[in-house]
Amino acid sequence: MPNALFPIPNALFPMPYSQCPIPNAQCPMPNAQCPMPNALFPMPYSRCPIPCYQFMNNPIIWLHGDCLSPEGPAFQAHPEAQAIWVWDEALIDEWQLSLKRMVFIYECLLELPVVIRRGDVATEILAFAKECGANKVVTAESPSPRFQDICLEIKRSLPVEVLPLEPFVRYDGYIDLKRFSRYWRVAEKYVF
Predict the structure, then answer these.
(1) Do 37 and 121 lie in a common domain?
(2) Strands 114-119 and 59-63
(3) What is the pTM of this model?
(4) What is the reported pLDDT for 190?
């Protein structure tokens, strides 16, 4: 299939419609609209019922406080993707983050290929995605309820792929997280 007519690689449609592995009842497209060679594709590309962004893979990476590593799952899965960090002003005020903590985060960010912004996180991520022509937001999981709310807001406009983090310590018991020293007393036995 020539790319000028339908910009999807031929490898995605290597067989005639009659050999398609998707059962007719599960196919999102009626027989007459299946994007196969020209004889089987009765409409211009502009009227295709499957938006082209579903076939493109142009994500952006959303970095947040629970995954600031260049070895994080989002960077590993999409090494060429552009990344964004958004200083969440509401969160900074709510949690009363110290200047020392913000400087530490900023220094971590300086070592990453990331665009740094501030404001409403979902709004800034969606604006960045639009600027980059992205069709998806990729990030690492976080236990934060605020993270879940932001993901839901982004999902209204773009798909969000949340990748699992490799746990630093595999431990099922109780760990006191109020002080690092208490946490480390337990975790150290499982790390080394």
Answers:
(1) no
(2) unpaired
(3) 0.64
(4) 83
